Amino acid sequence: MRIFIAKLVVAAVAALSFASAVSAGPLDDVKSRGTLRIGLEGTYPPFNYVDEKGVMVGFEIDFAKALADKLGVKPDFQPGKFDGLLAALDVQRTDMVINQITITPERQQKYAFSEPYTVSGIQLIVRQGTTGISKPEDLKGKKVGAVLGTTYEKWLREKVPGVDVRTYDDDATRNQDLLVGRIDAIPNDRLIVPNLLKQYGGKLVASSETFAPQKQAIAMRKDAPDLLKAVNDALSSLRADGTLKTISEKWFGADVTQ
Asked: Which of 4-8, 19-23, 155-159 has the highest mean pLDDT?
């Protein structure tokens, strides 16, 4: 009888352990770990970059810290090349990507997105003195640079017939090629343009008005509905208490979050 009871106890404990494991979700994992693993480039000013002191700073860094604080955990930034950020999310090396990821129908088929935290659009950037490139149609027959895997690469291939698309692993190499004349133009996020022009001392200029409106959000796996809800609740709280606006005005001088 004692052996029988002992077996029952063992079985019950095993069943409870299994049920606990099954019920634990991505949010529970984050809470248990105490950190929120965030994929980002770390080379994309003013959104996320390393300053002269070697510290990761930027709009999305401040935003991610505030978000993690609302969730009761610490941010764990995981830098990588843009075209590998979503891949790292796929294999669960990160919990989310906060890197000005534009919401697109194609991405929505595979990933869950939070509510948008920035609203943007595209601007064309050229070398100082360049003429004849002021709208998307002007890119036909031109050599135009885009970082591999971005919405800008996709936009060029789908919306600009006859364009010669040149792809890059990072923004810095692409920008340098524009400076020395290897490419004729680059499309980029309008929110990054003022910082980019300042960075290159007027050698690069914006040559178009903003077009193709875009919304950016936090990308997560679709198997994390509990984490998505918690993130959206935290985002709503940051918007309601003015934190999101304050962070935006610090980095952009305006509220670009809605």
From this structure: 155-159
- pLDDT for 110-126, tens place per residue? 999 999 999 999 999 99
36, 203 Cβ separation under 8 angstroms: no
Are 114 and 125 within one domain? no
Q: Rounded to the nearest 10 degrees, what angle do helices 243-252 and 225-240 cross at?
A: 70
- Asked if 142 contacts 165 with a C-beta cutoff of 8 angstroms, the reply is no
**CB of 152 closer than 8 Å to CB of 159:** no
> Which amino acid, one-letter code, is at 115?
E
User: Across the strands, what pairs with 48?
Assistant: 44
Q: Containing domain of residue 168, as a range?
A: 120-213
Place of tokens 């955990």: 73
The rounded distance, in Å, linking the Cα atoms of 37 and 48 is: 15
Q: Is the entire prediction scored with pTM above 0.90?
A: no
CATH of the domain at 135: 3.40.190.10
Q: Is 196 helix (H, G, I), strand (E, B) or coil?
A: helix
Q: How many domains does the chain have?
A: 2
Q: What are the structure tokens assigned to 48, written together?
A: 């996320």
Residue 87: which of 17, 33, 39, 136 has the closest Cα?
Answer: 39
Alpha-carbon span 173 to 171, nearest angstrom: 6
- How far the first Cα of the chain sits from its last, in Å, is 68
DSSP state string for 198-235: HHTTTSEEE-S--EEEEEEEEEEETT-HHHHHHHHHHH
CA 220 to chain centre: 11
26 and 137 belong to one structural domain: no
Residue with tokens 């005005």: 249
For residues 235 and 176, membership in a common domain is answered with: no
